[in-house]
Write a structure and sequence with these properties.
Distance between the termini: 27 Å
Largest sheet: none
Number of helices: 2
Structural class: mainly alpha
Number of strands: 0
Radius of gyration: 12 Å
Length: 53
């Protein structure tokens, strides 16, 4: 769903888009637990740091 949303967000510059596939993570685990802390949160935090301001 996220990939499809990025594809149709034509007014969002490509430089602002980030797609990350978290392998082996279910719907609940994407924002909770070890995979979030070690794999996903750092990607989100880096994206935010690159695009703020």
């Amino acid at each position: 769903q996220t990939k499809a949303a990025l594809d149709i967000a034509i007014n969002l510059p490509e430089a602002r888009k980030k797609y990350y596939m978290a392998e082996g993570v279910g719907h609940y685990g994407i924002f909770n637990g070890g995979k979030w802390r070690t794999d996903i949160a750092p990607v989100v935090e880096d994206w935010i740091a690159q695009h703020k301001g």
